[in-house]
Amino acid sequence: METDTSIVIRLAGDSGDGVQLVGEQLTITAALTGRDVRTLPDFPAEIRAPQGTIAGVSGFQLAMSEKPIFTAGERLDVLVALNPAALKTSLAHLNQLGLLIINQDNMQPKDFEKAGMKLDDYQNLIESYQILSLPLITLTLKAVEGVKISHAQAKKAKNFYILGVIIWLFDLSLEACKALLIQKFKKQPEIQLANEKALIAGYNYAMTLELSRSQFQLGTLQRKPGKYRQLHGLEAVGLALATLSTRTNIPLLVSGYPITPASGILQECAKLTEYGVSLFQAEDEIAAICSAIGAAFGGCLAMACTSGPGLDLKSEGLGLAVVSELPLVLIDVQRAGASTGMPTKTSQSDLMLALYGRHGESPLPVIAANSPIDCFYTLIEAFKIAIEFMTPVIVLLDAYLANAAEPWNIPDPETIKIPDINYNRFIHPYERDEKFSRSWNRPGSPDFIHHLGGLEKQGKEGRVSYDPLNHQEMITLRAKKISNIACIYDPLCIEGHVEAETLVIGWGSTYGSLKSALNLCESQGVKLAHLQLRYLNPLPQDLEGILKRYRRIFVAELNTGHLCQLLRATYLVNAELISQCTGQPFSTRFLVETILSRLQNETLST
Amino acid sequence: MKPYRREDFTHSNEVRWCPGCGDYAILAALQKVLPDLGLAPHEHVFISGIGCAGRLPYYMNTYGFHTIHGRAPAVATGLKAMRDDLCVWVITGDGDALSIGGNHLIHCLRRNVNVKILLINNQVYGLTKGQFSPTSPVGQITKTSPLGVHTEPINPLQLALASKASFVARGVDKDPVHLGQLIKAAYEHEGCAIIEIYQDCNIFNHGAFDAFSLKNNRSEHTVLLEQHKPLVFGKEGQYALVPDAMGMSKVSKEEGQYLHDSSHLLNAMKLAALQFPDYPVPLGLFYKINRPVFNLTTKRTKSTSDLVDLYASRASWLEN
User: Fold this and answer.
1) pLDDT for the residue numbered B166
2) What is the structure's pLDDT at A43?
3) Which 3 state secondary structure label does DSSP give B82?
4) Could you list the pLDDT tens digit for every one of the 320 residues in chain B?
5) For residue A226, which residues of chain B lie inside 8 Å, CB to CB?
6) Less CB within 10 Å around the terminal CB: N or C of chain A?
7) Phi then psi for B282, rounded to 5 degrees?
């Protein structure tokens, strides 16, 4: 189902095996050899589970292509399994006749036992694949003979041996890979030498095997000149925060309580103190949002980050930020629920909670990033909205987006549009500009003493009020302020075939899967228009006109129909849901089959 | 002449507590002492949670934030940690601080956030009209405990000491002069200060503290904690407290050789554990130490030109 021009490889081994490091080296080597790359590290839920067990498998998946690609792929062309447990968890994803590379040294009866597998099962299974079974440890130890390192360190070089094999197989640049390795281990010359020897030995070994590699040969893609790096969603968040604080010269507080998969943001931010980013690891989810509210009251940039269960707990705090009209950003890295659910698995099932999950009438803007790189720009935009409209903003990311990575053409930081910040615009805190945005009056300023609070407000001073008419006015005013944010959006951009009869709508991280799926539909002669929404509240003003232009509308989302219901209720259109709740990103195959069969059924029935 | 007067700290908002409420005396003590601290009104911020006491910021002519139930210490932590130039006060009550907000209180004390917490304890839920609180003593009849409270109350000062609070004191609404002194000492302390203030809710728990807090009862039933002075009590000051292996013993004044030492954690614990009417009620500064203060302000050393290096900090490559 994948396009012919893309190759997907997964490296799987024990969580202590260094799979992620080798995956990164392979990715950059592929990028340097002129491939487009998308990656997805798939880490185990149990950190350092017993060696060799299923729970302890760590994986790294890379898709590469000579054409632009949008996901890290689903079906594997090549699987590198460093032990039986890795084999067991990943083999189902390997294409028929795909290449299976296994470490013979770790395929002993006791290894199969640990993985809960029978040797016979394995022997039956592997008939459907091309097998490259090599005594990896033996070969590696031989390759690094004479290097002054311990036996354990010598064994670790096996990853680079495998890397050498893959580099040859995919016809990637050995020189580029070597240069990266030398740079990476420059402080440990002996390990550097061992890894380099293993890499070259692996490369030469593959060459002498006379394997067929024609199916892995790709052309090259011409990227715009410039400096590039692989960027994960969570790294993108950290870089955006450093940019915001540095460019505005205003301290930025990031508050959070460790929760999977959002904790990575806290770790990224811990490295950014020199850029004006302060990290507060709060005692709980509620304290995280409340401390951000305190910092925002103090005139600082403020952000909190969490995942589903934490968003539940932050509802009351968000309500306070809505009524006190303080600017802050809350990131929800969505994961599969309900309750604890599947913490490392992805989902889009918090949309309704983000939109409506507060008591009273408590509207706030909700936006979603559609790719790892887009996390950077979405965060900056979220702060811009928060400050311009004096409101909390929810940014929806998800577990997939947090961990997936793609090449980023590193921008000039001067060119990034950052929010304008003006304190004390009016003498009274609730005096408003033409956008209904109130004045951010900074404590410590002599003439701007004021009181904020969660009680209903009246007048420019924000006096406490129980007046019925005033309450009606304030409800209307807060709603109008938020709905006005749509005025600053860029016009919606429809991709694919704008003139098609059917529009497929997605939001957030499903952009890549939908784009791949729609390309495949096109290759089968079915033309579709594609709209990926980033603004979930308020919805864009030009959305209604677009919806009315299409005869059929599919809404594809990783939940039971949150956006679909919203569009149906808001615009009275017959939006049809395509839903997947597996904890995984959309399966391209599933999308294509669903879309095609629905379109076909209609043709048959008419 | 003082640079500020009481009126400078008094807001024009009409005070709306029940007539006779102990909060009036606490508000007055605050407004009276603030001019002595030397900061201008705009340098103070009062942050409160929910409850009768939560209204206090509206009556202060300072910056104020009436937040949500139990969360004032968390909001104050975010503010003070990022804005060390401001003097931040937390106004809270027994339900706010010790029930719904217990977690924030202990962590605020543990971190030693440089805020001043006034925990106004009336042993009842007043704003919601008369339910028992986490400090209500066993047997107290309230609307939700018609047969009497049957659970043990929290001792706020024991909790504070166990949370490694660096300044722990107790005052009463009926002695605003002494309360004012404690507030001033809390302000001068470098670190998180907590003052438990016994306050009379004259509607739902009237007279709960009268037996020791009324002026006429104070000398007999309270011990004023003064640094390096004996722990004297009794109508004529004829008794004293001395620490022993189990806690504190009541002895005659002559035997009361122990001098109060607010740096002595174990003796502070023993004082905090004393229960009226078996023992007199200690009022004043129980404990004070200096230890590192929590702060999140960062030293910015990087500028926009450094962002390029940060962006490329992970392995990067050039395309020509």
Assistant:
1) 98
2) 58
3) helix
4) 568 999 999 999 999 999 999 999 999 999 999 999 999 999 999 999 999 999 999 999 999 999 999 999 999 999 999 999 999 999 999 999 999 999 999 999 999 999 999 999 999 999 999 999 999 999 999 999 999 999 999 999 999 999 999 999 999 999 999 999 999 999 999 999 999 999 999 999 999 999 999 999 999 999 999 999 999 999 999 999 999 999 999 999 999 999 999 999 999 999 999 999 999 999 999 999 999 999 999 899 999 999 999 999 877 788 77
5) 318-319
6) C
7) -70, 135
Nearest beta carbon to residue A226 from set B40, B75, B319:
B319
Buried b (16+ CB within 10 A) or exposed e, A241-262: bbbbbbbbebbbbbbbbebbbb
Q: Are A400 and A40 in contact (CB under 8 A)?
A: yes
Mutation target vs B (from A29, A272, A283, A417; most B CBs, 10 A cutoff): A283
**A506: which strand partners?**
A532
What residues contact A293, with CB distance under 8 A and at least 6 apart? A302, A317, A320, A321, A324, A326, A328, B67, B75, B78
Residues of chain B contacting residue A235, judged by C-beta atoms under 8 Å apart: 314
Asked if A274 and B45 come within 8 Å (Cβ–Cβ), the reply is no
Which chain A residue has the Cα nearest residue B40?
Answer: A446
**Cα–Cα distance between A170 and A11 in angstroms, integer?**
14
Which DSSP state fits A127? G
Q: Do B79 and A297 touch (CB under 8 A)?
A: yes
Task: Give helix A233-248 / helix B304-311 axis angle, nearest 10°.
Answer: 170
CB–CB contact A294 B319 (8 Å):
no
Q: Which residue of B has its CA nearest to A411?
A: B308
Positions in chain A short of pLDDT 70? 1-4, 42-50, 605-606
Structure ipTM: 0.98
- Residue A414 has a CB neighbour count (10 Å cut-off) of 10
Whole-prediction pTM = 0.94
Q: In this structure, are residues B57 and A451 in contact, taking their beta carbons and an 8 Å threshold?
A: yes
Residues of A in contact with B43 (CB under 8 A): 444
Mean pLDDT of chain B: 96
Q: From residue A125, how far is each of A74, A94, A96, A118, B170 by CA, in Å?
A: 20, 11, 11, 11, 75
pLDDT for the residue B1: 52
B32 vs B22: CA distance, rounded Å: 16
DSSP-based three-state secondary structure for B145: strand
CA distances from A52 to A17, A126, A603, B286 (A): 10, 20, 52, 57
Mutation target for B interface from A224, A297, A423: give the one with most B CBs within 10 A: A297
CA distance A29 to chain B (A): 9
* Interchain contact, A316 vs B68, CB within 8 Å: yes
Collect all residues of chain A within an 8 Å Cβ-Cβ radius of residue B42.
443-449
Candidates A36, A227, A291: best to mutate against B (most CBs of B within 10 A) is: A291
In b/e form, how buried is each residue of B201-219, taking b as 16+ CB within 10 angstroms? bbbbbeebbeebbeeebbb
* Cβ(A217)–Cβ(A58) below 8 Å: no
Strand B116-121 to strand B87-93: parallel, antiparallel, or no bridges (unpaired)?
A: parallel
pLDDT, mean over chain A: 93
CB A183 within 8 A of CB B317: no
Kindly state the tokens that stand for A337: 């629920």
Interface test with A, best of B11, B60, B67, B308 (most A CBs within 10 A): B67
CA distance B304 to chain A (A): 6
The C-alpha R_g of chain B, in whole angstroms, comes to 22
Cis ω on the peptide bond leading into residue A338 (within 30° of 0)?
Answer: yes
To the nearest whole angstrom, how far is the Cα of A563 from the nearest Cα of chain B? 31
Please tell me the predicted confidence (pLDDT) of residue B19: 96
